[in-house]
Amino acid sequence: MAFNPSTKQIGFIKAALFVLALLPFLRMAYLVAQGVPVEPLEFLTRGTGDWTLYFLCITLAVTPLRRFTGWNWVIKLRRMFGLFTFFYALLHFTCFLWFDHFFDIAEMLKDVVKRPFITVGFIAFVLLVPLAATSTNAMIRKLGGKRWQQLHRLVYVIAPLGILHFWWMKAGKNDFQEPIIFGVIVAVLLGLRVYWSVAKRPATS
Ligand code: HEM
User: Single GO molecular-function term (predicted)?
Assistant: First the structure.
């Protein structure tokens, strides 16, 4: 189905998605301000963790959506989704640093080293930083398209680390349902890229 919105329509779609992407944050802040969650700190840490993972999957789904539908314009939404991944990851990390360690960096780092599921989440977050920092047009120009693309392939490491972090956390409760669902989603999204890159390679005799 051909759907080729004009630049103005794309601007409108982007603005609408921007507001939608902020809603989970606004909802969480509202519910906590109203005193609804019984465990507000846990509610915020977990809610922001969930939305980091959702936006990671949404960002990775842009290229498959473009290839399957021919909607090339969706690529223009990818940067915004990537930045929302970072936004929720930063909130998630801030919750941990604040609620678990009262901004004591040394204590926080000790915890990062001590608990493997935190170690993995922390590595994923640290790897997200250069991606967010190089998301501007000026940085793309400065790095050059090819190097920028190579750097942004880090997302193929970040996503499995995010799943491993989630899996490890839930393993303590013997509850694997959601990690399996998201593990399959990420495996399909990354598997498609492997398939496309192998299919593109010229056959050697
Ligand atoms: C790409 C990076 C990350 C992703 C995708 C991610 C994702 C998640 C998810 C999905 C959860 C489970 C939420 C639920 O129970 O529904 C979670 C929990 C958690 N994450 Fe992360 N996370 C990331 C980075 C981090 C970092 C950097 C830290 C801290 C250094 C961290 C600390 C935690 C903690 C403390 C919990 C809650 C554990 C509990 O309540 O028992 N995460 N994360």
Answer: heme binding
